[in-house]
């Protein structure tokens, strides 16, 4: 098991309600989707991510929220929402697949 | 009016003659006979009978070309063309028709035989006829086209065909219905006239009849009055022959358009001949039949113009020359005269052409511009170039088209066009250009076409011209080069002489230009474009280097000599030497420069795209030596071809010559005891090669026996007599020694040094003897001695031969003494004497810099330096100082004391300028020597001294000081109000005089006076310093102090201090001078190169010599002096609070330091270093801060900072910035450091001194440091960066990363903070200065400044995170916003100005913004600037797309808070379709949703531009796009409530009302407006 944390959290000292999350061993795949999910959040003022270096396998996500929320909250919310959405997608896909393969097996 | 007349004419019933004309030769033989006969008579019988009868004979056109040539060049094409080479660009139907047409025409193609009855030589014509089938299809096609497009043909057309001898007209008529449709569809550029003159065909026919009749009449007339014609020619109306000629071209053209280019020539030939023939006679007809003529004339004119429009330029040129060839010389002359008259008249009488005529010319112009592109599609690029050049030549000729070259084309384009022009220039044997008059221009366009030689005068042809156009006068460059390979030795020699004289002329003319007057040339056609000529000759195309190299191997001595002379000119030996001669006289330069051409490496993103990269050699040094051991190891020898050599020579001609093995050949030639002139030439060439680059110099050293041979030849005739080549030999050896220390040692060790400098050690003879030996001998011996002294100096600078000084001294002493001037003047040898004296003192100067420190020596005793280099002994210095002091007693030296009265009655003119100059050089070298001695006498480390004072002062120090005071070098007018009773010099001081000379005289005198001033100031400063150090002695005896004389008092108080006012004036006058200088020098660099051509020297072909000019030298000397003065008057910065004047003054000082930095050349690294030290010190920064505060509090729109910089911050900035600038700009590229291979010369990097680069610990710039001398006394341009670019100080904020090889950890945020502060400081201060002291910061384009600000952010957010630098940054944004508002005309060309791939940069910046900014407002403002309306569309588009993709459009502040006023973003309304589409795309994709809620500027932008586009300025041209956009907006709308709101805002948008406010007090007009808008939307959706 990997001992190091996957995600580390660091509050920004200059701006309130702003923080950066460093996610180890992830790249644009996760970075982009999380960012776009964060953009949907009304309380998020800024959400961006970057790969600090092409050879460093990690991303840094920066979030700035309104006072109604907090970066951590927004981040968790985004992850949860994404989870749900993907689950839903997966279920829908599998259901459709089952239906399709069912109909196929009926044919042959 | 004319038109009406025409119409009347057209409708005249002349039908009955129609048939006759059309079928002339078949149907009515009489007509045909008379017609053909007429032509024949003019063309042949007259010709052959009267050609030699003299001037009484009327000029007439000839149709007889030079028979042999014609056959050779055109025969083969004829048969081939018949097949299918026509109509390649055509539709297939067209081609088929052609074939049928051809076949049919062939049946008519025989009547020409009738002409044989005249008993003339028709052989050429018979060929034409036999091949007639070839031309027929084109003829027909043309006619079809002409009819099809309803163009009025004119009778010419008909006659033309008639004279061709076939009844093709009928055919054409048959075909007309078919082709007409084709052409109507195809020809999109149907001109105005075409449309206007849509006339029924019958009418046309009638007109043709009229015409034909007229012609018949005319020709019968003509037959009888051959002599009259000449007169008539002159009298004919304006639209006479010239237009006719154009008409012919016009006739020819359409088919040319439809056919492959290669056939054009042939066709032209065939068709032009008869046409021309007819045409010239046609002009006369018009006079005879007046009524017909006037109408015809205008019609033809009209038609001609229409035709001309359709011709491509080279076709025009070809047609012109074709005509020229067909006419007799007299007629040509007459026409030419007429043409010139016409040109004069043209401007006044444009209306004369008639309404159609003028519009026609306009269109013609347009066509001329478009044509090259059109022909480019079908022809090779070479053709395009030719077309382009021919194009502008014609333009020039007609004076109608203004500047083709300058309009909308970049600098490089216009330059290459200029160079292309040279291709057609012809040179006479003495190198002059034949003025491009009428004939020249016409000839120039075509080379294959043959000139007016006929069978009769063909023997007069110049058989030397075996290439190109044999008919034209003079030679083109390529012809001359080709002629060097002639089989006739005389021709080779002649060609080489020609080349040499062209090059010499070009050299001289370039050098006479003004430095930096770039590229203004193209428009003025009076003068000859020598820069372009130089570039073309040296360029890759003529392959000059190869020919020269081949010619040098010639076995004819005359050819070899001529070739050597030509090479000498190519390498511009003479002018280079004169430059280096002056440069060597300057005592402050111990180094020379290598002359190899260089260019700058491209800017990269790590340096923020800033200009001013490292210089690189045009040719890689490894390419110069072909027979290098390494390369033999690496590659197989077989890979080298002569093409490689040519490529190298194209990059750098000297390198190419060396590569082609010129050195062994020269060595051989020298060994065969050549004639003195050849030897001189050869050695000059060697000098030039040695000066070229380290590699070339090494090649000379390594060339077997070469150096030895030169030395042997020097020693061979050991007589006292001196030859010029001896002088040059010494010079060569000197240059070789300078290149490398190793060479110097080698030359000393193998005795060559002694062999060539023995003159110096000769038994000292008296000056009288020298003078008596005669002026010529004096001259030669002076030149030789100067070179030998220089050679000695080189050795001494390397640290050798110092011990031999005692031997040298006795013979030198006669030169060191102040001579008895009358004798010298009497014999007119003062200049020669002065040259030697000056050089001797320069030698002593070099020696003096080898002195060990006076006090060091005292303390440590005589410690012998352990190294192989030697030091000079102080014991020998004494007498020399005495001698030198004699020279400083300017008052007692007659002729110099005269200077001091300069302001009274212009007394200083007693001496010639050159004599003043040479005396000044002496004084300057004396001064520098003294200052070096004084420097050696100054203790290095003041602290280590007892009490901080020197124990005792050398006697000579006050002596020098007193002499300076006594001799009126300075006026000391301000000293203690002392009565200047003994100040005999009046108000004029020597310093004032020098200053005056600097401003008033020529370059060299200016340089010498500046050097003098520099030396003087240096001596004064050193004396002051020493006396100050020793002052405690004076203090002890303060009682005596009162009794001092004025002079002593001044000395005690410090000369510098006493003359501060004078020095201040000096400084300010020089500050003015350098502000001219820096602009001049900055303008030299263009195309990213030092010069535009690949040669050696003369500034690599840039005007006035560019960097290699005395102007540059002078500016650099000025900069040096300014630097020195600034350094020594630094205490002015000490004060804290300033008044307005003081601010101004400080700003001037800062400005001039910045300017001086930009003047400094490769040799001035130390100067820049010092200047940076002066510029970046805490007091200066404090002043800048003070300036910023004043600026902020006085300007509206700015608020003062709420904080202050601390003392430590100033210190930090000063340190960080100066390290940065020095690293950035003064570092030397050192990539070969790791190889450690010192076999190779090019591995040896010259290590430039006083660089803060950690890896190089030596401080080797000045030979002051005893022991480790420099390894070379010649600087390379390559591998360093000076001259600085204008925006050099932006580097602090726009550097992201250094070059890889500098591995010092640098805190870029600190640098950027410092840089921002410095930049704001300079900006702020520049607002306080008067206009004439304009700060360089104002000359940097705003684009660069904005760009630099962006680059800072690309590196990281560090700058914005710190409060102070954030404020500074924001203030800078505001400052530049104000600038943007102020100059609201200029565009922000980020892409074209800064880097071609600027979009990538933008994407990176936006990425950075999206990832880490937290939506920082300052950052957002910076990004938003790229959406400004004045930014180029591609950049704006890239920015918008990047922002949209990154979903950060909402992060922008409202528009009011952006940089500059919001209007700049909104007006003018966006018209770029792609950007509008991008707007809609972001709208639809939802990227704008949050921007709308957050009132981001981006949403305002979209609202404004979209609503303006959709609802205002409604016009048809944009309808489709508008519909498309509106539809996608509407379709998107119902899905989301948010979008609906946005759409409402869009519809309700009005610029004056901020979009977010509810439209509460809506006027009813707005309601109406809204209604309209809804209507429009509905329309655009077409009911969906």
TrEMBL record, chain A:
Residue ranges the record marks as coiled coil: 72-99
GO BP annotations, alphabetical order: transcription by RNA polymerase II
Main location: nucleus
Keywords from the UniProt entry: Coiled coil, DNA-directed RNA polymerase, Nucleus, Transcription
Pfam families: RNA_pol_L_2
Signal sequence extent: none
Top-level taxon in the UniProt lineage: Eukaryota
Subcellular location: Nucleus
Gene3D superfamilies referenced in this protein's UniProt entry, alphabetically: RNA polymerase, RBP11-like subunit
Family per similarity comment: Belongs to the archaeal Rpo11/eukaryotic RPB11/RPC19 RNA polymerase subunit family.
Name of protein: DNA-directed RNA polymerases II, IV and V subunit 11
Species whose genome carries this gene: Olea europaea subsp. europaea
From TrEMBL, chain B:
Keyword Nucleus (UniProt): yes
Pfam families on file: RPAP1_C, RPAP1_N, TPR_RPAP1
Listed Polar residues bias regions: 348-361
InterPro entries per record: ARM-type_fold, MINIYO, RPAP1_C, RPAP1_N, TPR_RPAP1/MINIYO-like
Domain RPAP1 N-terminal span(s) in chain numbering: 299-342
Domain RPAP1/MINIYO-like TPR repeats: 1332-1514
The entry's keywords: Nucleus, Transcription
Residue ranges of every copy of the RPAP1 C-terminal domain listed in the record: 424-506
Basic and acidic residues bias: start-end ranges: 1-12
Region named Disordered: 1-23, 71-94, 338-364, 372-391
Subcellular location: Nucleus
Chief place where the protein resides: nucleus
Family as reported in the entry's similarity comment: Belongs to the RPAP1 family.
Protein name: Transcriptional elongation regulator MINIYO
Organism expressing this protein natively: Olea europaea subsp. europaea
Lineage: Eukaryota, Viridiplantae, Streptophyta, Embryophyta, Tracheophyta
